[in-house]
Amino acid sequence: EDLVRDGRVTVDGVPAHLGQKVDPEIARVEVDGIPLPFKPGLVHYLLNKPAGIVTTASDPEGRPTVVDLVPADPRVYPVGRLDADSEGLLVLTNDGDLAHRLTPPSFGVEKEYLAEVEGTPSRGALRRLREGVELEDGPTAPAKASLVGEHSLRITIHEGRNRQVRRMCA
User: Fold this and answer.
1) What is the pLDDT of residues 118-149, one digit of tens each?
2) Whether the predicted model's global pTM rises above the 0.85 cut
3) What does the alpha-carbon distance between residue 75 and residue 17 come to, in Å, rounded to a whole number?
4) Quick check: 91 and 80 in contact, CB under 8 A?
């Protein structure tokens, strides 16, 4: 909606307006002059994953999964993961090209986390996060890290190792 309000979205060369209905198979939709690709049948969900839900398509232990929270058809898969105790934005899609562009660290897609920690991190601790932290499975890439509250950190990484942010903060 902000992009439309700012006049950055056009439909067939004409600025779009809020509430406008468009058939993407016929109309040419552009943002900042760049056409939006359209492939029939693709589904993309942005899900605010609650705590207690596992990020997988199926779970042998029978726990509720993120796929249980969206319509069953068409079948979608989570892109990336958040551990069961974490909550936050997660993409679910049947678009393999998109999943491939978002997942590998080589594409440099940043993932931002808000981590609640015990105590107040020192400037030295923030510096270590920014420089990379040594973990059991090797050093992390440098992260963006800032204090956003007495016990809260904003951490941005482009890797996606298992429980990486929790382990970095430990």
Assistant:
1) 999 999 999 999 999 999 999 999 999 999 99
2) no
3) 32
4) yes
**What would the DSSP string read from start to end of the chain?**
-HHHHTT-EEETTEE--TT----TTTS-EEETTEEPP--TT--EEEEEEPTT-BSSS--TT---BGGGGS-SSS--EEES---TT--EEEEEES-HHHHHHHSSGGG---EEEEEE-SS---HHHHHHHHH--EETTEEPPP-EEEEEETTEEEEEES---TTHHHHHH-
Paired tokens of 151: 């016990």
73 annotated active-site:
no
Counting every residue written for the chain, the total comes to 170
Q: Name the residue with tokens 């939006």.
A: 36
pLDDT score of 51 = 95
Q: How far is CA 84 from CA 31, 44, 47, 70, 157, in A?
A: 36, 21, 14, 17, 19
Active-site choice (2, 23, 68, 83): 83
